[in-house]
Amino acid sequence: MAKERQDQPAKRSRLRGEERRTLMLHSAKRVFARSTYAEASTSELARESEVTEPMLYKHFGSKKGLFLAVLSEFGTQFFGMMRECISQRAEKNILDALEHIIDDYKYTLKADPETQRVLFQAVIEASDPDIARCISKHNRRTYEFIRQLVERASQEGYLDPTISIDAATWGYMSMILSHQYSLMLNLSGEFAQAQQEMNRIWLRGLRVDED
User: Fold this and answer.
1) All domains of the chain in start order, with CATH
2) % of the chain at pLDDT higher than 70
3) How high does pLDDT run on average in the chain?
4) 10 Å Cβ neighbour count for 48?
């Protein structure tokens, strides 16, 4: 019994540490999203989280360490939301999922616009090899997921068997990446509408010729 009582405070302390780390990640995401990686200072990041700078360094080591943790944490959450949204369509109709990839991607963006801005900051800072690896991992994960959808549609006989699965997948990725840039550059809504039509045109080009 005495040993159990001694163990309890340590358990609560670890939980407080995890909660504090989560708070710092959420706060840092807000700072990086409204500013830039270069402009965000450790003092601002600590102040937003209501912790001291030494506490921030204790958990993440540096500003870059914190930025990489934000990218990893929320990039994974963002991908999970997108995958779930598209997978729900794919379970019912694989062609419907492929036709609405951009629509579902935009839906995910609306649910978490801050993460998208942080991902864009990562692209800007990609000269740093650690940040480049992190954003590359995120894009590769998205690519592999879409490739699985394209491959499934091909195996089920919906797509032209002579078309390269990789080329077809990169077509979708190019639309996703162009949508990211259109948002960050504040391009007109007409471009967003054009992308939806591009998605439909691309799928028609991949389909088996039924004539």
Assistant:
1) 2-206 (1.10.357.10)
2) 88
3) 87
4) 18
